[in-house]
Design brief:
Helix content is about 15%, strand content about 35%. It is mostly beta strands. It has a nine-stranded mixed β-sheet with strand order 9-11-7-6-22-19-14-17-16.
Amino acid sequence: MSVRALWILSHEKGENVSIRFTRRFATVEHRAKILAGSSYRAVPEDNTVLQLLLTELGLSDSDKSYVALRDDCLHRKRLPALELRVDGPGKGFLWPVLAISHGPLTLACLPLVDVPAEPRPPLASLLSVSQGLTLLAGLQTFLLGSGGKPDSEGLASRLAMLPSVLLQVCPLGTPLDVPLVGAPATPTVPTPAGNQKQPAWKTGLHRGRAVVNVALIETVRSMQYGNRSRQDLWDVYGTVTCKCEVEGVLPNVTVTLTLPPNGSPLQDILVHPCVTSLDSSILTASSVDNCDGSAFSGPYKFPFSPPLEPFRLCSYTSQVPVPPILGSYQLREEENQLRVSVTLKLHESVKNSFEYCEAHLPFFNRDQMGVVDVKVSAGQLDVSKEKNLLIWGLGQKFPKCREVTMEGKISFSGQTPGPTDPLCTELTAYIKLYFKVPDMTLSGCCVDQHSVQVYSSAKPRIVTSRELQSKEYFIWNSTGTAPVASGQMML
């Protein structure tokens, strides 16, 4: 259910009737136009709607006891769903215009009806009618309070809050909630100073405990060939994701990234549109440029006004001297057997503490696995003969020497053929590594918890984390033919 338009009218005794608040939702109106087709009727100007509502509700023409447009016996009024007949070119009607009145206020809305208007469907069958009335009742309680007769200052204060309230309970014209019953006449969060307005992209305000969560994830790819005639390739891609639950319309937050003294400068930096200002030297570094000592090496400050939902604050690339795990893979075919020899070595700069680490060795385009006589120096080996796959679980730590090996023979004597793959033909085989290392990054980049600055009325709890993970991390058989990666590897 969605709302095409919303009106709030004031009709105090002795005062002229006026529109105190109006809101139209262009995206919902576009949907209404598509659904109605040739029978579409645009919503008139607010003054026209005001006169039609007053006439239909009997609040105008007080000197006339009979108004044909309203009192004719052929006109069947079905409250609270009014039918407003519109004059002028393309005559038609707006239906169902929902209206409720209490005290000095009348609230009305035009919900989107997604069924044909003729023949007129029963009101009880339209979910949009019940939801529209629920929205109006909630807004009425919010504006008038539990007593139903707020003073003029209290009503003015609540009407001023209404744009922010609608962004929260009815973003883009679709009701998600109703305002709290008996809400106080003053805002429960600090009101913005001056003329600061709720931005259209921010659909609500946070209420509750303030928490800022910043997560830095670096992803490494690698293509290792074990061949002097072919250069190994690897790259590192980092992302900083934030979730900021901070009070205020446009709170200010600053996240700072730092590098170790000998760290390589971050490159190819992209930032979220909510970042308010940025040093131009941060954006000039590119991976296609030659790195020199003049490159900006931090600290990298990102001031921003966050949306409510989690978002990617920035991304970057980094040039590191070596991949985290260096591997050697050799396959030699002997009759109907393969002799397997694997060595994996964890680089000394990498923290020897994994959340998980696995090496997958597929053997496609062959008969099904038969006898597997393979030994590993560390970890556990799982054999999946149906998939022609060896899964080497290395656990959470490499041994103290930081090196593990696999040696053995595999025969393929099954009665049925195994899986096929165009990239793994005969000796064109590979190892694919899957790992995650918590609390470290390959570039050394980090977010210091104490460097996160939040300018808000409430002091937030700051949570930061970082991790290194693999993606498309291949070690190819050095005795076979492997694909050549064209150009620079990019994630």
